Amino acid sequence: MFGIPQRGAVRIGAALLATGAFAAGALTTATSAAADQNGSAVATLGNVLHGQSVHIPGEGQGAAGTVALTEDGQALEVYCIDLYHGTSAGVKYQETGWDQSVLSDNPDRGKIQWILQHSYPVLSASALAQEAGVGSLSQDEAAAATQIAIWHFSDKTDATSNDATTTAVAGWLEQNATDVSEPAPSLALSPASVAGKSGDKLGPITVTTNAKSVGLKLTAPSGVQLVDGNGQAVTSAGNNDKLYVKVPAGTDAGTAQLSASATTSLPVGRAFKALRGDSQTMILAGTAPVQVNASAAAQWAPQGAVPAANATEDCKQGGVDVTVTNGGDQPWTAQVNGKSVTVAAGAGQSVFVPVKEGDTYSITVTGPNGFSKTFTGALKCRPTGGGTASSSSTPSAGASASASGSTPASGAAAPSPSASGGLAETGASSSTPVIAGVGAALLVLGGGVVFFLRRQRGGAHAG
C-alpha cells in the first residue's frame, strides 16, 4: 500500500473510489481523449484505512495496507502493486487493463489476483484468520499481510513484520497463490470512434461489462438509429453485444454520440494507473455498487473521406498504437504527430508512436475537413525494481505499528512521534496519523489530513 519514496517523491499506496466519472474519446473534430479510456473509471487519492509499519529490504521502515479514495460518499480500497514509485494528493487514476499497466510483463500477476480474492477485504479479517489457520486477526494485520504478499509478486520484495500473525498470514497467502485470470472492465465501448458512409451501418461497437444490463442512449440527427446486428433498434445491451449506428442513405455529413451507463461493482483486481507517469500504480481490493459510464461516437458523410482515429497503449513495444481509419470512398491523408499517413477508402492503418517509460504523451491526429483528435496519457508499464524476493515465501520478523490510527496489533509496539521515524499524530484530529520519513507534505483532501513525510534512508518512512 504505502511503500518507499524515491528522492523528492511521496510514496504512498492508495485505494481508489470508482466514482462513475469516466472519460471517453469522441469521433468529432478537435477532440481530446486518453488512449484506452473509452469507459475507464477515473478517481483521486483519499485516506489511509488499515495497515502496519513494516520493514522493506534495503529501504527501512514503510507502511503496508490499504488507502481509500472518496467521492459522492463512496470509498473503495486498493493495494499498491508498484512499490518503488511515489504518488501525491490530487493525482488522477484511471482504470486500465493489466497489459497497459506495470503488470504487463509480470508472470505472477495471476497470483496477485488470487491473493485479492482470498484475503482482506474480500474476506473479513476473521474469515481470513480462519482460512490461514491463525487464532485471530485484526483489520490492520489483515491489510498488512495482504500487501506484503502482493509485493512479493508485484515487486519481488519481501517486506517483513515483527507481528507474528501478520507474518503467518502473509506466508500463507504467498504459498497458496495460484494463477487466476484478469477481471473484465466494469464498462467499456470499443472502439470509441467509428466512421462510414451515409446508408451504412457504422460499427460494430462492442460492449464489455460485468453489469447485467447497460442502458444506451444515442444523440443523433433525426432518422439515425442505434441497432443490433440484425438491424433492430436497441436501448440496452449486455456483455459482448455488438452495436451499430444506422445512417439512412443520403443523410448529410454528421456525427452521433453513444452514451452507455450501468450500476455495477468494479471488479476486484482491476489495475488503476496514474494519468501522470511518475506515480505509483494500484489494484482494486474492495468494491461496492457504483454508476459507471462510457461513450463512443460515429461520423459519416455521403461521399469523400470519412476519418476516424483510436489509440491503444502498447507496453510490449513501449509506446502508443494509433489506428487511423477511413470509412469513406476517397483516400485521406492523416497527420499523426506530424507524420503523414495516407489511408485508402474503406481501409485503416496503424502508426506506432514511441513513448519513454514514465513519460506523459500528447499525440495529435489531423485530417481533412478540420478533423483533429488528440490522445493524452502517461506510459506506465514497468515497476521500478528495488528489491529481490527471498527464496522463502514466509517473511522474517521486522518492526510493525498501526497505520490507521487504531490500537497496534498484538506484539507491536506503539510508535513514538519523533523526527527519526514512526507514526506521529497530527492534522484534523488527535487520532489522525502522520507518517514520518519521506521528505514532502501530502494533503489528503478527503479528510483534510496532512501527512508530513521526511526522507530518511534506513529510518521509518512511508510512501
TrEMBL record:
<feature type="transmembrane region" description="Helical">
    <location>
        <begin position="434"/>
        <end position="453"/>
    </location>
</feature>
<protein>
    <submittedName>
        <fullName>Cys-Gln thioester bond-forming surface protein</fullName>
    </submittedName>
</protein>
<feature type="region of interest" description="Disordered">
    <location>
        <begin position="383"/>
        <end position="427"/>
    </location>
</feature>
<feature type="domain" description="Bacterial phospholipase C C-terminal">
    <location>
        <begin position="308"/>
        <end position="377"/>
    </location>
</feature>
<dbReference type="InterPro" id="IPR013552">
    <property type="entry name" value="Thioester_dom"/>
</dbReference>
<feature type="signal peptide">
    <location>
        <begin position="1"/>
        <end position="23"/>
    </location>
</feature>
<dbReference type="InterPro" id="IPR023849">
    <property type="entry name" value="TQXA_dom"/>
</dbReference>
<feature type="compositionally biased region" description="Low complexity">
    <location>
        <begin position="389"/>
        <end position="422"/>
    </location>
</feature>
<dbReference type="Pfam" id="PF08341">
    <property type="entry name" value="TED"/>
</dbReference>
<keyword id="KW-0472">Membrane</keyword>
<feature type="domain" description="Thioester">
    <location>
        <begin position="78"/>
        <end position="177"/>
    </location>
</feature>
<keyword id="KW-0732">Signal</keyword>
<keyword id="KW-0812">Transmembrane</keyword>
<dbReference type="Pfam" id="PF05506">
    <property type="entry name" value="PLipase_C_C"/>
</dbReference>
<keyword id="KW-1133">Transmembrane helix</keyword>
<dbReference type="InterPro" id="IPR008475">
    <property type="entry name" value="PLipase_C_C"/>
</dbReference>
